[in-house]
Amino acid sequence: KEEVAKAKADADLFLWAASTLAAEGHPKAAAMRAEASQKTAAYQALQALLEDAEKGMAFSGASASPSPPVAAPAVAAPAAVPAAAVSASMGMAATPSKEEVDAAKSEADLYVWSANTLA
């Protein structure tokens, strides 16, 4: 659940950065919007995996706390990408490993740094 929360925070940050750059007419706005779209898709894929895992736990008799509803992003996101397609394109198994999550976090941190540098 922490990985999903971090992915959501990254997606929200990139959406904000893309909106801010677009409002300022910055030439990197389109690139940042593309990055925000990728982060949003990655978050949605992780959220779907978490929900599927929780459903699997519920069906097996284990208790799982219900996940809160996810608010729609303020900036228009690209067409929905199936979680399986995103997982396959990212080289992820059914549930992301700690190494995959750490790699995604490192990449997101790099993007945050670059966005802050451009600001």
Plain-language structure description:
This protein is an all-alpha fold. 68% of the residues lie in helices and 0% in strands. It has helices at 2-23, 29-59, 83-89, 98-118. Helix 1 runs parallel beside helix 4 and helix 2 (29-59) crosses helix 3.
Itemize the secondary structure elements and their pairings.
Layout lengths: L1 H22 L5 H31 L23 H7 L8 H21 L1
Key phrases:
119 residues; mainly alpha; 4 helices; 0% strand
Can I get a quick summary?
The chain has helices at 2-23, 29-59, 83-89, 98-118. It has 119 residues and is an all-alpha fold.
Major sheet size, sense and barrel closure? none
* N-to-C span: 30 Å
Q: Radius of gyration from the CA trace?
A: 15 Å
Low-confidence stretches: 71-93
User: How much helical structure, as a percent, in the residues?
Assistant: 55-70%
Question: What's the shape?
Answer: elongated
Number of alpha- plus pi-helical segments: 4
Give the ordered list of helices and strands. Answer: HHHH
Mean pLDDT: 73
Number of extended strands: 0
Strand content: under 5%
Structural class: mainly alpha
